[in-house]
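Example 4.3 (complexes with small molecules)
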Amino acid sequence: MPKLIPTPDELSQPFWDAVQQQKLLVQQCSACNTLQYPPKAACQDCGSDKLDWHETNGKGHVLEFVVLQDTHLPYRGPDQPINLAIVTLDEDPRINFFSNMPGEAPFEVPVGAAVEVMFEELPDGSLIHEWRRAQ
Ligand SMILES: [Zn+2]
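Answer. The structure with zinc ion bound is encoded below.
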């Protein structure tokens, strides 16, 4: 069953536009250089609203995972059990992304492993970011 792309809002639209170009962006504060994601209106560290977009190198590590077995999301129910991993971004491990870890068997997510971003095509042709073991 398909994943869904969240409906972008004004803040997240540039992020999703970049995903369609196979790029993973996070916000970068031009006052203090803090990286942050998900996008916010102001810097989480210094409060500045001077935020730009930074293209990450798409490298991360698996921090932890759970396995969804009784999700209430009806469109994902038939896929259960579903891995749901937390990936930390190497450029700033305070930044986390969720991943279903395509290619890894349920319950067998490699905690601590190096991963890299990839882009999955959805049935409507749009792309969504995902993570896989670094090649
Ligand atoms: Zn800042």
